[in-house]
Amino acid sequence: MENSSPKATAKLTVARAFKPAVKTTIKVCNPSVTLNEVKQLINEGSPEVVAKQPIFHWYSSLSDAQAQTSEIAVTTSINTLMVVRKIITCALQKNNYCTETIYKITIVGETSVTAKTLTNTACQITTVADLKALVDPCRYSQCTYL
Fold this sequence. Notes:
The protein is α+β, with helices and mostly antiparallel strands. It is about 20% helix and about 25% strand.
């Protein structure tokens, strides 16, 4: 005897996770920087972000980012002379991927560049990355100078 009860079917849609490696410390020498410029500097140091091309959403706090309220315009300018270190929250969104990924971005205003004595006098420095490593050995790959 056959079972005549109807069969149930279900469709499961799986969204990929989206958590790219993001440059979270931005050093600038300019007296001010817009969030659009910060986005460009993040992209320069975050190849995975460039590859995925997410939408950037800016917020002044983590709670605003989580609630997706009070988004800040990309044209907003941050004065780096008055505030030496500014932390802003960035949520990256990518269609057809899981939820937004939230990052704390630290914008550091530099008022001067410290002179550095180079110890390599044999002219063996061949790349900009080598020079940056000498100038700022502390996470030089995480920092961009505008």
